[in-house]
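EI: anyone free to look at a 587-residue chain?
SC: sure, send it
EI:
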Amino acid sequence: MRRATGRVAAVLLPAIVIGVIAAYTAVGWLRRAHEAATHAEPLLFSRELAEHLPLAALVFVVAAAVCAGVVIALRWVARAALASGSGGAPGTLGAAVAWVYARWWRLALVLAVVWAPLLALRWPGAVNPDFALMVTEIAKTRSEFAPGEARPFDVYPIAYSLIPDGELVWSNQHNAFLTLVYGGVAALSGVLFHSYVPGIVLLSGTQALFTLFALGRALQLVGRGVARPGMKAAALALTAAGAMIALWSMDLSKNPLFAAAFVWWLALVIDRALLSRRRWWVAETLVATTVMILSVKFGLYVALAGALLLLLHRAGWRAVALGVLVPVAVLQVALRGLIGVGVVIPDDPTEARVTQLQQVALIAREDPAALTPERRAVIERVFDLDAMVAAYVPETADPVKSSGFEDNGSYRWRTVQPQDWDGFTGVWLQLAAERPDLFVDAFLLKSDKYLDPAADTYPWPPLRTWDWTVSYSLDLSGVNPGGRSALEAGLAAAYASPARYLISPSAWAVLTLLLCAVAVSLRRPGAMTWSLLLALQIGVALLAPLNGSGRYLLGVIYAAGVVFLALGLRPTRPAADDADAGSTALP
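SC: here you go
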């Protein structure tokens, strides 16, 4: 039965991946066809599909055929490498690859050398609005804001009913612990140097070094189970070709830090499940898990999914508990405790409802009659429906939840109470049942660029620094301005050429997914484990508030080289280890 299930999964799951990618490619073609025709009416995919069904179907078939061809080609490469055993390339190449993979720092050094021009031009990063607001939350108290000055919990609105009394502005909007680290280092820099610039340079430099370490360590861990030097060299080359990794490594926001920690953590999961029971696995995994959860809020769910998959691999419940579940529990208890005593302001419910809000807004715009007086009354407790419709922007949910420095009147965060949300989800479900076409339209309008390899997306982080002053200025415009300007011009030129696919987030995400499809189709050991963990992040990206933003795909992009390397894994963990569920300290 288990073998039969495995054979079905080896065919069905890759077919689903290919079908989803082909569908998003067809949807992207519909978007570009609409934009080229300069229609006066706004884009609705359901309407475009009805008008261009034969051509859209043709695009779907061609895209599916191309994806299938890529999978077949990659299957052939992987099978040829696996069938040839460990003989590999003799002489210089084999010795060089073995030498590089023997130590994580050698792998990191190779990446640093390849990325050195990009890192030099990017240094010391650029301050973005999220980072500026995180610093503000730690460096200022409520009484220090001048009348009319933007406060963080008004820029990213948090219901006043959730905000405790007191002077603190620290919130969980961008993950409370990461806010404390970023804001605390910047505030300390201000105290010591009367400037935030040294703190920013320290943070961006440390994050870049951590990224190099994490990728080098991940490649080394997985490479221990791969015999073929050619596959190791190709995996390193694929990772080095990810120019976006270098560009994002200095960006002081949550997603790049999570992506680096995730790849390291993913390699540790593969190592524990398939390769060995190393003495220091628990300590190393505890650190990786902690960084992953500290960086993004959904890191908690990735960690829990990984723990479950490790237990299914019989990887030792004590090790999994200590390395993964303990940091999850400690950080969650600490966060809930800080929120409970009023030290940290909780994040607003709208942050978890961005897709719902976009769907309600689109249905209200296109079919106002669907909003009966009863339904309108439920929604109006939380939102001004007329303002919500006026604010609606298909590709980003920020306007409908009133994020930004100008209050558009959509979200009633100053007056809403927690009980005012009662019934909202019920109305949303009723609208979905009545207008499923608009329901799907709103979802695709906010997510279609993530898995369309030809999409016009946002491949690199902000390169122009943001002029914002808290106690001291965060303006980095005087630090390496020539380098950032040259980098911006070069990237714009590259993105306008066929080289765009080397820096396209959606193209890299599609490549990683196809590599997962190859691994599952070949029934490679552990393939379902890492594929599910990556699929979880694709789901998070599709539900993100902004369409096509490269930063929401970074975990998948950073992992491309490790996933390719895992195609060549030969499990080495002794069978006896499976029975020793409590072992945590074997060499």
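EI: Residues 574-587 have pLDDT under 50 and may be disordered.
SC: 👍
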